[in-house]
User: Fold Acetolactate synthase 1 catalytic subunit from Bifidobacterium bifidum LMG 13195.
Amino acid sequence: MSTVLNDLIPEIKRSQAIGGKPNLKPWWDELNRLREEYAIDYDQPCDKPTDGSLAPQWVIKQLSDHADPSTIWVSDVGQHQMWSAQLIDFEKPHSWISSGGLGTMGFGLPAAIGASVGSQRDFKGRKPVWLIAGDGSFQMTSEELTTAFLDHAPVKIAIINNSVYGMVRQWQTLFFGQHYSQTNLADGDSKEGGEFFDVPDFVKLAEAYGCVGLRAFTEDEAIDAINKANEINDRPVLIDFRVWKDAMVWPMVAAGASNNEVAYRPGTQPLLHKGVDDGDQA
Assistant:
């Protein structure tokens, strides 16, 4: 990388000296227009949970609003990863850790532990670390709660629990006629003695590893749990947020489509400057 940059930077400077810097104002004007006209939000009717559960976007926004400005944010892989990138207010550099487009489910907890331990070494005092994970991705490496507890890494874990593999379910909803296959983790149909049967019970799982476990079904419970978690700094703490399983991530690009076909919402493709039929939602 350094070799490439050493060759590239002088060439860029030479080109700018000959022709001057390009006028980027028209491009920035277009970007700002798109940002204003197609702002990231979750206030549309299609974003409102129909089952009384929490909106996952709202949960992530509350995590951001109630966090210490020095917080290091880590995401696992799934819908929550995109919502986190869109909605968290990053105030400082070196505060966002994600595996990007690699799709490495289970990345989050080990990365959060590393961030917690590393921040104590590299900064003056340990920084708070929030991990945002899905119930599916978290189970790929949940056993590392042992490492977090034994190594005194007080990570704070937000499980965005929609009881499904949300990203796959979104594709099955949009492109496969709502034929759901191998995506339900615990959709409420499982009953034992008339009660909802959690697979797993994340609160009990956290407690079994010596961590603090909390759960939130309502907005008031969510705010209370976030405040409690922010006050706990002697061990890991996990919050099981029960969110709507049909929430969707936007914008998105359908398989086989080019980036200029990105859909802002169902039926809206800004870069094509035209809508699409409801049956072809992306």
Strands lie at 72-75, 96-97, 129-134, 156-161, 191-192, 195-196, 212-216, 237-242, 268-269, 274-275.
